[in-house]
């Protein structure tokens, strides 16, 4: 029933897609986000499973590093056992908020022809994905926030270094990290237009997040050369930086520089994305085309 | 012996099926190597900061990671693809064809899919175990090897029974394939470290951690000389109990199953 009404609806009240404007984007996102959130709530079982994987990895790292701190007499690498807890609790939140799966999905989309209807829509496909991604994150928070609180309580998180200013500074860092990781990974996902199998590439990318992004261990615990590489990689700025800001480990100047580096990566990704996108779609030929 | 013939035929068919895709073989291998490198870097970073993780040292953990890769390979060879296929068969109704075949239904369901890519992981894992053992520089008696193989077998039986019980639930809940995703997450993340580092309540509350412990930590303990007699006896008893329970549950489920068309 609703299907028969849909064309009429879009003709009368739909946004004007002819030119990109804030009004058009607002109309698109307010409708699309509502649908996507409803969708994620309907498939909450699937969301719960992903949330569980988001929780397990920091939980394991947390236990391992608390054990290390314990056997070194209470602290290791400049972190006490309880500081490791607060670190990995924030890592869990930031990992969830920056999570994006499109590097894995593009291969499937291209292979099955699922990309064809998305490409035919009158708006750039990235908006479709931003909305899906954002709605997943919002719905997933229902699981991630309680998990973070439980872990913080059970494992005695120590937020002694965090001031109100750090919390305020954390939110811009988090939002920039979300944009950064989304843009970098969405751009790299375009590789699937040229390669038929991208799983090995994606696995490698995930490893970078573990060691250069700070999800396996705080970067200050890592060997010096890994830390040096992490500064010039996007991974540190997508996860470790917001976490360090939240824990109060970064000074005012360092925070401002960090925002700048995040913005630089975002700009670079947008430029590369625009260059690659036209080439990618030109390469794309669906079955029957 | 009929059962063995069935097993052999299915394994051969599965092998032939996947031999068609050779490029996948190399990509899979690359994935395994990246996974191992990740574990290895993790271990090196940890032991850069400490010399002892609740009684485990660096080279012990390399042996443990080797066992994890080996067990993952063995699970991915037959158990996991078959369980996935079983749940899919229940959902789509194709299981009914299988039930009409003149062989034990549990056996058929458990070996119906073979993913030979598991073999390379198993071989790679065995290699890592050998390297780890040579680093440990401890004399491994033939008795220890026999013990290792026995507890490894018991661990695999526990995992198999555990997964069969989970998959059998699909008779009632139909869409359950995500359960295997949870198992994978647990096995890949939590299984990389000895189970003894997790606090007791965590081990108890995460049921998924328990089978992981029996399949990875205990075989690793047997090779690194950390295993006492009671744990061995307990492992065998638990394997037996799990197997019997899964078999009874399978029969119970089939008795209540009316088929897709009924």
Task: Provide a compact summary of the structure.
Chain A has 289 residues and is mostly helical. Chain A contains twelve helices and two strands; from the N terminus they run αααββααααααααα.
- Low-pLDDT residue intervals, each spanning 5 or more residues of chain A: 1-12
Order of helices and strands of chain B: HHHHHHHHHHHH
Rg of Cα set of chain B: 19 Å
Q: How many beta-strand segments of chain A?
A: 2
Spans of chain B with pLDDT under 50 lasting ≥5 residues?
none
Overall form of chain A? globular
Give me the number of helical elements of chain B: 12
Indicate the proportion of strand residues of chain B: under 5%
Form type of chain B: globular
Oligomer: heterodimer
Greatest chain-chain contact: A-B, 29 and 33 residues
Secondary structure: helix percent of chain B:
over 70%
Verbal overview:
- The complex is a heterodimer of chains A (289) and B (262).
- Chain A is an all-alpha fold and 289 residues long.
- Chain A has one domain.
- In chain A, 76% of the residues lie in helices and 1% in strands.
- Chain A has a two-stranded antiparallel ribbon with strand order 1-2.
- The longest helix of chain A is centred in the C-terminal third of the chain and has 32 residues.
- Chain A is globular and about 60 Å long.
- Chain B has 12 helices and no strands.
- Chain B is an all-alpha fold and 262 residues long.
- The mean pLDDT of chain B is 86.
- Chain B has one domain.
- At the A-B interface, helix 3 and helix 9 of A face helix 2 and helix 9 of B.
